[in-house]
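Give me structure tokens for this 430-residue protein.
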Amino acid sequence: MNFIEELQWRGMIHTMMPGTEEQLNKEMTSAYLGIDPTADSLHIGHLVGVMMLKHFQRSGHRPIALIGGATGMIGDPSMKSQERKLIDEETLRHNQEAIKKQLSKFLDFDSDAPNRAILVNNYDWMKDYGFLNFIRDIGKHITVNYMMAKDSVKKRLAANADHGMSFTEFSYQLLQGYDFLHLYRTKNCRLQLGGSDQWGNITTGTELIRRVEGGEAFALTCPLITKADGGKFGKTESGNVWLDPRYTSPYKFYQFWLNVSDADAEKYIKIFTELSREEIESLVAEQQADPGQRPLQKRLAKEITTMVHSAAEYEAAVEASQILFSNKAGDILHRIDESTLLSVFEGVPQFEVARSVIEAGVSAAELLTEHAQVFASKGEMRKLTQGGGVSVNKEKLADANTTITTDYLLNGKYILAQRGKKNYYLIIAK
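Here you go.
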């Protein structure tokens, strides 16, 4: 597979240094991409870079994932308006292990293949590098004029005219440039990958390699991903969409991709999956013929949820998505786990009821009026029940006096009440 051709048709190349393609065609090449370790999970904003590494390895080259432990302790000024919070070494190491576990779903770190992936942390070579040695060995090769000319520096200064830019942040591009030099020396790394906002930092690295080693190195960046409506990709009302199920459940992760617009789905399926050009063109044709079936969104959600979580988690997410519409929703409710249940019914009114009330057995009418104010009165509740408008755990309630016991509890603590077609309530046994 030709890496450059693959990225081009997928819309994943923003800028590329001359000679990059020739280098990749000449021999197996090592390339690195930096990942910020300020959290113990990647979010979907990281996935473009991770997919670049994945395609790179599929093309027979060797990917290097660089955890920015040292640079993460400083903060990259590119596209940022404020300095980052610093992290300690213990947190850094924890985050590194968690990120490697996630990357292992995309990259082969463990085989005997000559292009198996490598994980490095720039803290390991920066922590004992003395300041005087660094400015003597490295700083003398890059002028202040060169550093000031970078867009990332100019934009940061313009945006913070009153406060300026700290020396710590200003030195960031020199540190990132040294990473490239170090990997060039120790891993024969000839290429750095990154987002388009990293172009200035990456080319500082290629310049440093040229001036210090007389060597040639290359740069390739991908576009920053946006939504068709101009909104920020990867952000929801509740924040980032994380890869770790502790922060974003597989159900919510699946729903994010399922609900992207048609225009975004056509773009994202090229970037975030390994599907071939032919498969994607076929799906695009299907979408155009019958947009209501949303084949692009469904396939995108399937591919990426399976890759990040698992086939089983994908199936569970699909099943959970049917709860609001399926005739078999009652069965599904009893199978899904607690986090998925809470994700599906996030935002619905909740009532806490003493567990002893349910253990003793309580009529549905009493439960839904006196203990949980789903209805204003028993009369109203009985009337709607007679008309088939009340459900408990997605099963229509035939009699308002039905006794609700612990047998009704989902995951040992929840009861889902439904008034009419669209009004849901979650009762929690405490």
